[in-house]
Amino acid sequence: MKMPDLENLTIAGVAPDVQRQKISPVELTRLFLARIERLNPVLNAYVTITAENALAQAQRVEDEIAQGYYRGALHGIPFSIKDNIATHGVRTTAGSKVLENWVPDFDATVVNKLKEAGAIILGKTNLHEWALGGTTINPFYGTTRNPWDLNRIAGGSSGGSGAAVAASLCLGSIGTDSAQSVRNPASMCGIAGLKPTYGRISQYGTVPGTGAYSCNHTGILAKTVADTAIILSAVAGHDPKDPLSARQPVAKYTESLGKNVKGLKVGILRGYFEEVMATEVKQAFYDALAVLKKLGLETEEVTIPHMDLIPAVKVCTSRVENASAHDHNLRTRARDYSPQTLYAYLAALLVPASTYVMAQRVRRIICDEFRALLERVQLFAIPTVGFPAPTIEECNSGWLNIDGKKVRRQDARSGADSFCAIPFNVTGLPSLNVCCGFSSAATPIGMQIAAGPFQEDLIFAVAHAYEQATDWHKRRPVLELN
Amino acid sequence: MKDAVQRINVEYALNLTEEEIEIITKQVEAGQRLFQKLYEVDVEGVVPALKIDPSERS
Fold this sequence. Notes:
The complex is a heterodimer.
Chain A: H1 11-19, H2 25-43, E1 46-49, H3 51-66, E2 78-82, H4 109-116, E3 120-125, E4 137-138, E5 142-143, E6 145-146, E7 149-153, H5 159-166, E8 172-176, H6 183-189, E9 192-195, E10 218-222, H7 225-235, E11 265-269, H8 279-294, E12 298-302, H9 310-332, H10 339-348, H11 353-373, E13 379-383, H12 392-397, E14 399-402, E15 405-408, E16 410-411, E17 414-415, H13 423-427, E18 431-438, E19 444-451, H14 456-469
Parallel strand pairs in A: 2-3, 2-8, 11-12, 11-13
Antiparallel strand pairs in A: 1-3, 4-5, 6-7, 8-10, 9-10, 9-18, 13-19, 14-15, 16-17, 18-19
Helix pairs in contact in A: 2-3, 5-6, 9-10, 9-11
Chain B: H1 2-11, H2 18-36
């Protein structure tokens, strides 16, 4: 049996060795658990580690493979799950005090699909309280630290998932994204992160009130675009338990890797998000566009007439829908919320119903405007976050330093870190983060590649071509611990 | 707007402090200013983006 180098391991790389029984799922699981035991006390990526279950699961899949029953590329692959996604028999907190002792008696559909594919669940990852924020500075379960710089945040709300993948504490993770929550930590941790088309992955089993209804998505974090495509192939599809899930057939996403991307037109999105964009992020993005052009893609700057209203639509719809889901707890356990979260939900209770409906009408206009753009271009590109991972201290102070200017981390439009991501939550269009450079502080910078509804295959083709032309995704954080 | 927050305080039995009521009131007002821009859009004939696929209904 081979001893894998965990830091450079990918799903695409290890799966053939698992299939040929050159690598043992039990041994692989033991190695990951040992690494988690060593690094998690510092990173705080996991809130619950399911070592016993994982080893039992690993033994089962190893026996299956030995008997010649190989299920596919996720068979024997160690995963983590964001802790707002229900896991049978395993505590699921949603990063909240309210659910600190909740142990679901069912699996979310996405977890069930992973288990059916033979994946091994190592544990549950930390998140922003109720997934309502982008820092994963959690008052109940602690702060998740960025593997590239322990003084910085890992992003959020799926910060634990981002840190776990980047620090090689698992090979893939499932998160949720209602404003940025998969792509933001993927960007800040230097990995791939996919928010697929609305409804592409079932949300059955996602804790209500952690992302609302109109703009939430189940998403994927992994080291590479290829791994993300492998995972999406396993977890996408219609789910009768989720009335919001889509009926579109699931493509063979890995077949899009390596496809010719010459001649594709990319719209470079312009809009309100540029007011909080650091120079070094712009530079890394422009350099990435130059790579895309070398690959034969054409670019043009695009925008929509109502771009500036996207934050208002997003905040109005999500806050009101979330507050509705929290109504019972607000009446009975209000002091089990952090003050910041409590105040946000109480304020949302006072948004008039007519304003909510108006936001949904404007949302329709915005979706139509994006649809019109997609007749001119096939893809969109935009930085994922306007600035590299801020320090934990900056986030706690409420102020960021962008190019020497003090900028509020959060205003009525929500966190400045979400501004670039939310156009794709409001429209439901698929969007994927790839690492496109590093800051002067040696922390990752990310770029989003987005496309029309259910065109994840197109995104994978372009993002994979970009990864093959660069080596940002091959860099690993150096975790030197005393 | 402070009155509305105080009504929520009573209805939900929250025991909010005066300082907390102020914070929430300011958030509500900031939201109102943000959402006001939505009313400047001509939405004549525009149906909200709420859709239930008929095939999902039993």
